[in-house]
Amino acid sequence: MEAKATIIGSLFEKTEDYTKNSIDLVKLKAIDKSASAISSTSSIVIILISTLFIIMMVSVGGAIWISKLMNNSYSGFFIVALFYAFLSIIVYVFRESIIKIPVSNMFITHIRKDKNI
Question: Where are the domains of the chain?
């Protein structure tokens, strides 16, 4: 009878160890996915900031160039502003298909990547 009790006790200990290890594994996987998503997002943000700075410089240069072509010191800036206003309206109208769905799919794909820890 005592042998059965030690076997059952051993089984409970192994089950407890398995449960703790499973919980630890889930925690580690969650940490890995979170760290991966954060690092990916931060690199995208850095690239986005750099790209926006380049676009800003090109816009100012283009506005000055258009102003010189039109012999008017402010018309180039208004034309560039109208271009960006038109672009903003297009992005707003198609924001679901241009921004929301691709970004959501990117995050879901990135999070669902299966990595071995």
Answer: 34-112
